[in-house]
Amino acid sequence: MAEQIDLSKEHKPDWALFLPAVSSFFITGLGKQRDTTTEDYFPQERIPAGFNGDVERLNFLNSKEGLFTYKWGLYSAGHADLDVTKDIPAESIIRDREEGTFMLGDSGGFQIMKGQWPADWKNPNCPKALEQRIKVLTWMDTYMDYGMCLDIPSQTVQNQHLFDKHGIKTIEEAALATHINNDYFIHNRNGNCKFLNVLQGLNHTQSDNWYEEMKMYCDPNKYPDNHFNGWAFGGQNKIDIHLTLKRIVGIIHDGLLEPGKHDLIHCLGTSILEYAVLFSDIQKAVRKYHNPNLQITFDCASPFFGAAKGLA
Predict the structure, then answer these.
(1) How far apart are CA 55 and CA 27, in angstroms?
(2) What integer pLDDT is reported at residue 46 of this predicted model?
(3) pLDDT tens by residue, 282-293
(4) pLDDT band for position 1 (50/70/90)?
(5) Are 288 and 259 in contact (CB under 8 A)?
(6) pLDDT given for residue 311 in this prediction
(7) Where are the domains of the chain?
């Protein structure tokens, strides 16, 4: 049996934190294999001999049995079975993860952009949108430590061939739909999950306008008991370091990156090594001069995607 490696110990406290974006095929495969009420999901001949027939060795959230362990991750509502009223063994890796692990929930905006959650998202009275909104929020509040609000990604406006699936033509309509989702989340959250205010925009002007519209959701003066608890940088905000720095300065200036109130900034789908260094340096500076609690996180799904597509 190979010696267990605890990768969590390799992370230095002043580094920005990498979150592996766990794929559904990984969660489902391990979950079905550990389901004792059914036959093995993976034939024994496919399991390496050193695993002793147990693919739970690949569950990095299991500190006792994992071949390697890492206590942080990201999982998307767009990949999950959102029915919290049922026992779903295929989701047990996430639902029954051990205490002390941390999971950030992505809201599923990507699924809206791709037309996989069809609804007229800019219509506050659309029943399909409301149903999905309720499912996502309930799932986040039940299983996630932090979660992102259900935003409409900037790139949705570039997918006009899917207009009949999402109803979004302009960045203004994307912002309107995000307002509707934010309002629902902020008035119906139960407090179990902390939420991030997602910032979008395809350029500086759009990003500035989006921030000015959405910043109120993090304002303790406007929402003293249920304001959002941090930020998620999407669109241009996450890849244009000039804009990233400008945005953080503006957030600090507006009093919306306060210790104990807004302690997390997540950079969506960004994992280039150079950016990890930049995010770590930014985190150190903000901790030194403003919020000593700040944690910057970033994610990617490449390790899982590479395995799923037979590339690794």
Answers:
(1) 12
(2) 87
(3) 999 999 999 999
(4) low
(5) no
(6) 75
(7) 16-308
Please give the Cα distance from 188 to 8 (Å, whole number): 34
The residues near 256 (Cβ < 8 Å, ≥ 6 apart) are: 215, 218, 219, 262
Query: So what's the pLDDT on residue 172?
Result: 97
Q: Is 52 exposed, middle or buried (0-12, 13-18, 19+ CB in 10 A)?
A: exposed
Retrieve residue 131's tokens.
């149903």
Chain-centroid distance of CA 179 in Å reads: 19
Residue 254: the pLDDT is 98
The rounded distance, in Å, linking the Cα atoms of 112 and 243 is 25
Question: Coil, helix or strand for 233?
Answer: strand
CATH code for 16-308?
3.20.20
Burial of 190 (0-12, 13-18, 19+ CB in 10 A): exposed
Alpha-carbon gap, residue 82 to 203, rounded angstroms? 33
**Beta-strand relationship, 295-300 and 17-20:** parallel
> Residue 115 contacts by C-beta under 8 Å, 6 or more apart in sequence?
159, 162, 165, 166
pTM above 0.90, yes or no: yes
Residues pairing with 20 in the sheet: 300
Task: Assign 108 to helix, strand or coil.
Answer: coil
Identify which of 261, 271, 273 has the alpha carbon closest to the alpha carbon of residue 297.
271
The amino acid at residue 210 is: W
Q: What is the mean pLDDT of the chain?
A: 94
Residue type, 261: K
Q: How many CB atoms lie within 10 A of CB 161?
A: 8
DSSP 8-class letter at 216: G
